[in-house]
Write a structure and sequence with these properties.
This protein is α+β, with helices and mostly antiparallel strands and about 900 residues long. It has five domains: about 200 residues, Sandwich (Jelly Rolls), CATH 2.60.120; about 90 residues, Immunoglobulins (Immunoglobulin-like), CATH 2.60.40; about 250 residues, Glycosidases (TIM Barrel, Alpha-Beta Barrel); about 100 residues, Sandwich (Immunoglobulin-like); about 180 residues, no CATH class. The protein is about 15% helix and about 35% strand. The strands form ten sheets. Strands 27-26-25-24-23-31-29-28 form an eight-stranded parallel beta sheet. Strands 40, 41, 42, 43, 44, 45 and 46 form a seven-stranded mixed beta sheet that branches. Strands 3-2-6-11-8-9 form a six-stranded antiparallel beta sheet, with no helix packed on it. Strand 8 and strand 9 form a beta hairpin. The termini are far apart. The model has no long low-confidence stretch (mean pLDDT about 95). It catalyses: Hydrolysis of terminal non-reducing beta-D-galactose residues in beta-D-galactosides. InterPro entries: Bact_Beta-galactosidase (IPR050347), Beta-gal/glucu_dom_sf (IPR036156), Galactose-bd-like_sf (IPR008979), GH (IPR017853), Glyco_hydro_2_cat (IPR006103), Glyco_hydro_2_N (IPR006104), Ig-like_fold (IPR013783), Ig-like_GH2 (IPR006102). This is beta-galactosidase. Its EC number is 3.2.1.23.
Amino acid sequence: MQIDLAGSWQYALDPNDEGIQAEWYNQNFDNSLNLPGSLTTNNIGNEVTVNTPWTGQIVDSSYFKSPKYSKYREPGNIKIPCWLQPIKYYKGAAWYQKEVSIPEDWQGQAIELYLERCHWESRVWVNGQEAGMQNSLGTAHQYDLTSMLTPGKHRLTVCIDNRTKAVDPGLNSHSISDHTQSNWNGMIGDLLLKAEAPIHINSLQAFPDLDTKSFTVKATVVNTGSVTQKGNFSLNVQPHNFTSNEDIATVTQELELLPGENQVELSCQLGESAALWDEFNPNLYELDLQLQTEGTQSGKSIITGLREFKVEGSRFAINGRPTFLRGTLECAIFPKTGYPPCDTTEWKRIMRIVKAHGLNHIRFHSWCPPEAAFTAADELGVYLQVECSSWANTTTTIGDGKPIDAYLWDESKRMVEAYGNHPSFCLMAYGNEPAGKNQREFLSDFVNYWTEKDSRRLYTGAAAWPVIEANNYHNIPAPRIQGWGEGLQSIINSQPPRSDYDWRDDLTTDGKPVVSHEIGQWCVYPNFKEIEKYDGVLKAKNFEIFQEKLEEQGMIYLADSFLLASGKLQALCYKADIEAALRTPGFAGFQLLDLHDFPGQGTALVGVLDAFWDEKGYITPEEYSQFCNSIVPLARLKKHVFTVGDTLQASVEVANFSSEALNQAKSGWTLKTTDGTTVAQGIFKQQDIPIGNCFNLGQLNYVFKTSDSPKQLRLEVSIENTINHWDLWVYPAKKTATPAEILVTRQLNRQAINQLNKGGKVLLNLGKGTVKEGYGGEVGLGFSSIFWNTAWTVGQKPHTLGILCNPSHPALSQFPTEYHSNWQWWDAVSHADAINISQLNADIEPIVRIIDDWVTNRPLALLFEITVGKGKLLVSSADLTTNLQERPAAQQLRTSLEQYMLSKQFTPKQSSSIEQVKNLLR
């Protein structure tokens, strides 16, 4: 029996903390709102100002002092670049009140107030009598009101406080921070009064045993009376979401139930043909335990799965079969409401999208989702890593005797009690990136306790660090192509394009499974059309700032092009990251940050999906899942750029983490032109492919034949019905001499000036370190897109998001390209400075643009043309002179530019002076 408390409540705000001393619990409140919900969803709170007391670290404080943000600090035009901006903001105590009527047939029943999710601390009074305080961030707040609620009307008062008071989990924790869901105040999910029999089942935990195909059920039974009673238990197990011809017998047991809490244990055999739960077959059972005592009956049902998630060597095994975690984070990002959904419909939508992109795993970063997320993951087959709502860093530490220590123990126990039956709940950590001089000891105790206490899942101390002996698995940041702080020294930015590396040397030496922590973090340009989607409580004022800056620079017409071009580069970076993980022997998995955008920490547009989990238009789930899936063909390529006469050599392999081995699998390769014409192809020997990775399909050797023109090719590798691909470029081996009428120079010297003054043609190719600061020299130019963002990495390079060009421009006719960055641009970009063309002539349309950071939106160029005096000048910020015998892409780009300069099409439309050009140079 239950009473739904959803609907209209009365409320009062208590910004001065006077409510308890003034005994507001004895007063009636005048204003009303609707719950479940928050103050913000009810449009209640303060207007956002520059003095709003946010919850979350602000690394880049320039918003509060920089002149460029001055107009966004004016009343009526407040726009925050750090995160999404709520329509109203309130931090402090808020009081909620409702009159409830208890029916006569609840007399003698055990009555509980169930508040599914509060944010954050709750205190409850009934008719002015206090019932207690609870402060779980990840589980329901449940109050025993049996002695307070008799039949009739009662005034129920709840005070919610969303400040960090007695316990600080870390102000950046996604459980509380304005960086993500927002620091909301309210109550969401089910708000109920529940009535149970005086003797009732309070808790039911099911422990699967794969060896015996059975469940052991442990129940806590509460006898609220003062007399021992006999209890007859009946446990029934039935398929929940699949059909079975096997009859599962009901197990019965009779026990004496003493006053207070009683522990009951029953076991039920499922039979040899029992259905198992995993990502491919998420079979679920319903376990129903009924209790009959003299005059009363009580029951409790749970949905669970028969599965075993264990360590097997350096990998995980699900039901004895090796598995590889392909994961994304979920950081409590819900722009419509500012808080997580408590319905399975929305969580199923999210998890179907995750699986459509080839992923099988979600890590909940420093927060624990509601029950509905676990239920959705159970039904769809998604492995979850859940954390105790803490990022104990910056403002707090763990292991040092602070209140957070005891809180984490209590919270972990509440979480396991609430969600432990869910088969999707496979992994657990204290939280994220801890600080504390005694953290290792604290986390070792934490992991050892839970490993001994509950074997239904695996445990690690923390996401990121430290690596401790107690860990069942390690969740560390090392295996990735770009680390925090690596800047331009990472593999993707410092080494020519290749795909023959892996992370075997970055795994730990103890042989335990390693899951890489927060890989990727590759950014894309904002999608300004997304602004209109923020029609809930959080607004994309940050996007509005960036859009206005682009308008001020006269480039708003390029917004969509910047999005799509940078998106293509972002997808290329993620492909490189994920494939390297899949190539690594003995690796246990990865966790992306992120499949969708992270709106906080200075705006981290790291998703191929937006904050609503919607596509942005430059890569589909089908395309993404070619390189991220349970079966992925892989090619170890030493390079992507070739000259005629070179041999394409590739070791071709496959990662197979599907549900079964591939028997006599058919595989092969095809080399195609961009129009789909087959250049060459081959078949590999049919073979059995077990579950795992690094299984060699064969060697590919192909000599690039004589060609009159450069070509872009696509190498496709297939196994059965699965295809993956890589782009390659082949350039002529014979180098054409520079025509006499073109002067190629690294400097704007007297010879170059004379050539221009006489109406001649000059190719000025500069190179890295040649452009002045203020003219583009301050821009950190690299091949990859921005890592996380520049605001929160304190300006970590690169500062750019790839190139944008017109592939049909005649200057690029001999340098095959799409409109966006691909591997053939690595060389030019890696040997270049950016040039800020606004310092020359704002009307210049570059042949090849560089897409700048959305925070600065500078008009940057890699290649552009102008008239200078009587002459024509083509400026390449890339070095096209040095060591060209080892740089075929640079040689080919130079050849293409020189042929263009010889043609009648070389007619620059804008002009600059000699002095303006000279001012660019250091």
